[in-house]
Amino acid sequence: MQRLNPWAGASSQPPTIDTDEIFPLHLLDNKIRTLELVLSQTLLFSSVLDATKLHDGLVKLVSNGDWRKLGGRLRKQPNGLLELHVPKEFTLERPAVLFSAETLDMPISEHPLGGRLPQVTEKSGGPSLHPGSTEFKEFSTAPSWCTKQDDYLCRDDPVLGLRVIVFADATIVSLVVPHVVAGALGIQSIFKAWSAALRNGNAIPRLLGAREDVIVSIGESPKTEPWVLLPKEMKGWGLAKFVSRLLWNIYWRPTVGSRSICLPRQFVSRLREQCIREAEAANKGGEPVILGDGDVLTAWLMSFVVRARGGTRPALATNAVDLVGRIKSLRDTVADGGGVYVQNLAGAAFTDIGVDLAMNRPLGEVARAIRASIQEQVTEEQIRAQIRMYKAGVGLEQRNSLFGDPDAQLLVYSNWTMFDLFNACDFGAAVVKPPKPSSEGAATTPPGKPVYLHCRSVEDSRFQRDAFVITGKDLLGNYWVTAFIYPEDFAPFEEYIAQTWERIR
Fold this sequence. Notes:
By secondary structure, the chain is an alpha+beta fold. The chain is built from 15 helices and 19 strands. The chain has a single domain, classed as Chloramphenicol acetyltransferase-like domain (Chloramphenicol Acetyltransferase), CATH 3.30.559.10. It has helices at 27-31, 51-62, 137-140, 149-153, 184-199, 214-219, 236-252, 265-283, 293-308, 328-335, 355-360, 363-377, 380-391, 421-424, 490-504, and strands at 21-24, 38-45, 48-49, 73-76, 82-86, 98-103, 128-131, 161-166, 171-178, 207-208, 257-263, 315-322, 340-341, 346-353, 409-415, 431-433, 452-457, 467-473, 479-485. The strands form 5 sheets. The protein has a 7-stranded mixed sheet with strand order 7-11-19-18-15-12-14. The protein has a 5-stranded mixed sheet with strand order 6-8-9-2-17. It has a 3-stranded antiparallel sheet with strand order 1-5-4. It is globular, with a radius of gyration of 23 Å.
């Protein structure tokens, strides 16, 4: 619901330096709303890591080939499009990466905030609620760093920031990056390449799409079918109602809190098995039902929100869609070892779920409806049709439309499971002291691998409500979800989790 302002910060930009190399930001970087956020990816390690080695590895990455783009300074052209200005050489005055390191001579459990970071083991039992990412804002970024996109436009700061806090038995690592530079796939690519730079500087993968937008050729493919969602586009009075209701809620209920939810593998597997049985019963002997963990978790979370909001409105769920995994040419390039992408390469899927289905039918039927809707929208031809829609806009006035029932309750989902960040990040080369073996199972997470992570906007956004980020599975098989809901929802949500576990265990 937010829009890039073509004039914001333009008048206060630092003067252009003639020797800087200019890298473009691309179609989706410039045209998708909400990308003006600054993201902080925070990871917790049960090992003690060397902060200097982590910094040196990231600098080595950003100094390599087209990866230099990530050492750039964000600038805006007169037409409003964004680009990155990269110094000819990185110096102390114009570094490749902002860096902040702090060493605390205490166990993390003794730190008033660090001790509250979620940590679970193989013997932790059932699902559990933990403090959410908003509580750990202090760890997200250094005090003097940019917190919003416009800050970068009027300063000469590099777009990447690295903050490391080293305890006697653990390490917190936060990577800060403007969303216009990278989304979930880009963050995964950075962590993979950073890990490679730490192990061996010669193993850094190529950065694809640094100079040319891979979306352009995809959008120019022959038109074979229309985008299936176009007939459901909100327009006129319907769109006005939907937006007005959202703004009204923001005005009267401005406070949104967050919780991290740990869902053990047995919880998710049993919930999926139950949903499959329910969906097959409704299918009445038809083809076997296939449901993924993401379908089931989306349906389960949706069921709670619909009930928490009174059960009178249909639900409109939005899901981010990874384009690289859906476009064969991009997928093959990565699979063949050609390199990795960092630019924003995500589309969107919209799913309407009616009140009767959400309130009165088994959860398996809801999950099946969600899967069917998404599968219809993520074929390669449908993705190409969606990209053509993005390209149809002029300048920054492209249609960032909503698709679905204008009377619906909006729910936002982002599933990062496919990016496997717990495995993508391997800082083993920077380990100073590995974790002590524990009968509680903590030692099953290899040194240099994170035991917990979350992503948050450095600045709180009032638009982030009834939103869920499925950050993926840790190395013990637990799913982690960050929920952004109202404070009064937390107690009933905890009860909802307990009731579900009691029913399926």
